[in-house]
Protein 1
Amino acid sequence: MSDPAPSDVPAIHRLSPLPSQTGLTDDEITALYLEGAGDPWLRVNFVSSVDGAATHQGLSGALSNDVDGRVFDILRRLCDVVLVGAGTVRAEGYGAMRVDVASQGARSGAGMTPHPVFAIVSAGLDLDPRSPIFREAPERPIVLTTELSRPEARDALSEVADVVVCGRERVQAERGLAVLHERGLTRIHCEGGPRLFADLIAARAVDELCLTMSPLLEAGTSSRIATGAAPIVPLGLRLAHTLQGDDTLLLRYVRA
């Protein structure tokens, strides 16, 4: 069994369905997030303030804390590919898709690549092929784009990533997911942003939402975790478990 969290990280307990008596180890947390997960499986991970803000001063990472970060790292252990919208990649300052040493060991022990593949959704290809995201990637990234993206940008990025057209004016969620599945990347972990999440909801493709409730009141004009104009039929979810670390709640919802 893995060691508990470092002493400077608050312990995480299970509140439901059955309360845990002691802090959970990484292995125990991993088992909770594997429970009921199929293959293929699309997991979406977000953090929100308790009054519904998706960001603090424009960044979702600013709402995070050590409790959220611990589970965030564990969730990256469980996927074949991390899927993120280009706007979120730029705003949050993503680098190459690498996980820590403990996660590399856990992934290798499960017969997976040491690091997940990085898949970026970008309609306009406003991405720098010289970025560490591409130049330092341990696994060749994938960029999902549109017919209207600039041919010269596609050519430049094709030197450092697999660039795939998945729609004319915007990336079609169903086509993008099919591209990943065709490459054997069936356990998908989406880290945003809100427009990509809305597209996945509209496509009825979401199997799981992992939502961290940060104990903050933000007010202001921050967006929701999903924002999109397309009308949709609500997708029903059920609460699989609730974890708590200090005043932070970690909710796991799966498709009903």
Protein 2
Amino acid sequence: MALAGSATATLGHELSNPPTDGISSVKFSPDDPSLLLVGSWDKKLRLYDVTTDTLKREWNQKAATLDVCFSSGNRCFSVGVDKKLKSFDVNAPGETVIGSHDDAIRCVVHAPETGQILTGSWDHHIGLWDPRTNASLGKYAQPAKVFSMDVVGHTLVVATAGRSLFVYDIRNMKETLQPRESSLKFMTRVLRCMPNGEGFVSGSIEGRIAVEYFDPSKESQARKYAFKCHRQVVDDTEHIFPVNAIAFHPIHGTFASGGSDGVVYIWDHLNKKRMRQYPRYPTGISSLAFNCDGSMLAVASSYSFDEGEKDHPPDSVFVRQVGENECRSKAKVAA
């Protein structure tokens, strides 16, 4: 299915009516491959039909949005600086406040296995919520601010300040399954779980990505590794850029990374290969998302203020068509 409207051929189609301030999060619907939810610092939450380049709905917010997610094709959620977890019906204008934290909420994820919503806050807590009853199912203390988290099956992985990682079973949040120290030497900025449930990938402010596995056996832990990325050599000087975004392809299990260098890479982590590099975007990449059938990749090109206040290109959301074999691993993986 072709995207409507004009397009920048090498970058993908640029959506009309983009946010006017920093884009914090882009997420596709789990059911509809064309519906994209976008959160930003301009105090608006936007829902697009990317196939027709239509802004389907816009919700006004009282503060910046830091993260968004869907639970189904018709229900979505946002969190942010106002410390609240809010729910929205994609077909209605209003919002429902489900609960709150004592500080800004940095991340929100939906756990399909249980139907629950999880929030990670700068108040050093993980929140667990039942969106069917809008009830809190408990808050669980962390040693520091939550920077990123993701869930696969019943497994939750949380990245906090201080390079700490914590693995939980969401059916028993009172106990930590695995406390870990990040394989990366600098602050974790993003973390995403592998779709097959075997492990997770994290990115740091120092232009590195780590691939880790849940199985604690020596054989499995020997498979983990980290590598350099999102770096440029200019006039014989290496410039290092934060890794801001990671997104797994839902079919092939390879992943995309985006950095403050404005570059998106596709990686085959099982075979330790970089599969492709897309042309540079106008400014840094703040968020990435594949749609549910893997046919499109949303790229948020948005300056993330790593270098403080400065002039920068306007914020944009590009949507790339992903070819059938574009993210498919070409190497055979040993059984």
Protein 3
Amino acid sequence: MDTINVLIVDDSALMRNLVSRMVENVPGITVAAKAMNGQMALEKLESIKVDIIILDLEMPVMTGLEFMRERKKRGLDIPVIILSSIAHRGAAVTMECLELGASDFLLKPSNVGSEDVGKVADRIVQMVQSYGGAYARKQGKKIPLFASTSREERPAPAAEGAAPSAPKPVTSAFTVPASAKSGPIQAVRESGPIEIIVFGISTGGPNALREVFAGLSPDIKKPMVVVQHMPAGFTAEFAASLNNICPLEVKEAAEGDLLKPGRILIAPGGYHVVVEKRSLASIVHLNQEPPRNGHRPSADVLFESVVKEYQANALGVIMTGMGKDGAAELAEMRRQGARTLGQDADSCIVYGMPRAAFEMGAVQKQVPLNKMAEAINELALKY
């Protein structure tokens, strides 16, 4: 079996070694090279083949942003994961890197000796396997697919102190066993006019939402609410970047925001978002109740409120992501008569959340990413 080759780019030797340790002991991943700035990374790419780049932003000689600009100029398509800081400037630059073609990003651990390190390690491995694995397979490498379970949903080690096992390979490309399929859910009432559209999305989401939102019709008059799993401090910049390419208004949700026709609200990182229908105006509320399915914001929390307030008068969309967040409550939305869409396996970076929903019978129609905007437009303008 071939391996996913990784290039780590960071001016800190400590961080290069830390990230290297996070991935090099995972079967199927090899640290092919390290570089201390963007210029050195470009030089290394001339002599070695890699399947994914883990890139710091703040470096001497050539920054991460400058590297991304040069990558685009040279037509390089190797996926890039950004290592970002939580500062406002870091968020703005991170979003610019996504616009330049970076696949995703994650926060550096705030303290090398903190609990953050384990969470960051888990996310890096997931991203390397997802983005790097997909790229490597396109290059003809034999790379297995991996089970789409998150740290919170994996079994604990058998004995105290035992190392966690590597993610389990999936034997075939996103095949759903017949025994796992529950069949389509039979709704208890007929679907009504769509009054709200809600999304749940995670790994692979930043670029997937960019593609979908750019293709939405300016004539849609339904409010939309999005849960994208993203750290606190980044969703305002993310919403602003989407607003630049979407014909509808996109903003980070704030407590008490109105659900206006044609407005898209993005759940803030670190906050659950729920909807409330009122006689004069419908609004959103934010809260910091415990994470659900390991996430805050959680798609299940949003969808649950939609079930309560809108029943059959909603459209739920579940897209690429690790784990199962959103699946259970999307199933309940469908049971109450809401319309539902799920991203298909072939176009997902990780077919986890949509797969879980599909297996529960929650998804009326599976749609490839490049057809998702068209499918949403059709339903939103028809009903």
Protein 4
Amino acid sequence: MTSHANGRTTTDTGSNDVVPFASPAAASGGAHVEKAVAYDAILLAGFGGPEGQDDVIPFLRNVTRGRGIPDERLEEVAHHYRHFGGVSPINAQNRALKAALEAELARRGIDLPVYWGNRNWAPYLEEAVTDAAAAGDVNLLGLATSAYSSFSSCRQYREDFARVLIETELAGTVTIDKVRQFFDHPGFVQPFIDGVRDAVAGFIAEGVAPGAVRVLFSTHSIPTADAERSGPRAGDERHREFGEEGAYAAQHRAVAGVVMAAVAADVPGAEQIGWDLVYQSRSGPPTQPWLEPDVNDVIAGLPSTGIEAVAIVPLGFMSDHMEVLWDLDTEAMEAAAEAGIRAVRTPTPGVDPAFVAGLVDLVEERLNGTPAEQRPHATELGPWFDVCRPACCENVRAGFKPAAAGVAP
């Protein structure tokens, strides 16, 4: 049985460390930590969401802090939440994920508590880290609820970790490492394979010819400037030629290819089915370029290409939060109805047993110091890094802020 060591003394992570705020094993900056680390606890880091009508505007103010957006414009987004009673499902989903992680850890005999905190709504990360420190759990392994590499899906969480340690004055007492981005871990990929297989097989069983089926893999759009800077910077030994849309788009495309290959192997005729990577949920001024094409625009054009049925796959999302419920289940399904084609939205991983087991596998990698070549990954891009590379996933609008779990800056 693995046990966590309450009250264990940690090393001050000062300016001499290549990776600030890190455990001694990760502080030197190697891409993969292949040394066992006796973590005290897991820090589950979420985005957060409102849990009532009165929470909606304060929550959106938190999300857009520093951007000077007036409440009148926030109300344009607020109606998505108000349509569902002002309640985002994301907090309930994180509670369910926390419970599932705790059950899987207990099943494996891993004695690590799970602390949960959010960036934008209660319970906040500050509370989670403070509670952990008060309990003597000072060497934390972060697990952010986002699988891919970009500023908003990785580096911003790392900046959150650093900000919280600085603001709570726990830097030097508490360390925070982070599991690798898990976009291509088999536990994350398998639920998507299952969902697409079921959708495609269902269409074919209903008499739709495979060539008249299309699969749209949808993810959150981000500014193209952020996409270009996602992943390691050019010149870094770990950088690959990801293309103009960076590691963010490359990771999604790689996973989509794996999903479609698996489905083609399982469903007769599925090798004839085409697919696209599409985007949703863009925000920001119209003059700012964001990743395209938009999912609804693509759906509108499908009938002219002979498509009769579409499977909409929320590939960029761990669970059915607001962007899935509104942008896909509401707007994209309406777009399909207007286009006169059949549509199915496939499931997110949520608390699928394969996904939960995969997350605990990631924890065990770090507890055991598993060598990189022994770590499972479904694409040629993996296994991704334990320690993010210098200047990884830069935010061009705000510059570099202190960040944990990565080589500075």
